[in-house]
Amino acid sequence: MARYKRRFLKLRNQGDFLVPWKSGVTDIRSGTHLMMEMEVTIKEKLKEKFGENAYYGRNSLVGAAQEVVASDVINWEYIFRVANTGFPTNIAVWKTSGPR
Fold it and tell me: How remote is the C-alpha of 3 from its chain's centroid?
């Protein structure tokens, strides 16, 4: 890190930067999971610093996941029933004629 010290100091002189830090995260198993953890931490820090004026951007991984879960395209009731009981019923996974 010592060889990058001048670069970091030069950047620091250009204004405030958000540097979220999270330690002890041992359950991350994929790059996507890492990105989602980073996104959540960055949003938390932005909210701490800017409160209601925080801008989180237009797109996010968490937002995309929330849209899929909130969508009625997938029959979540069926999926959780099978996951909890291990027995599928005659309810279709897709509420429409098939995947889109």
Answer: 33
For residues 64-90, b (16+ Cβ closer than 10 Å) or e, as one string?
A: eeeeeeeeeeeeeebeeeeeeeeeeee
Residue 89: per-residue pLDDT: 57
Contact 75, 95 (CB under 8 A): yes
Which tokens in the block code for residue 26? Answer: 């041992």
Burial class of residue 19 in the structure, from the number of CB atoms within 10 Å of its CB (0-12 exposed, 13-18 middle, 19+ buried): exposed
Whether the Cβ atoms of residue 38 and residue 25 lie closer than 8 Å to each other: no
Q: Give per-residue pLDDT as tens, 5-50.
A: 888 788 888 887 777 777 777 788 888 888 888 888 888 988 998 8
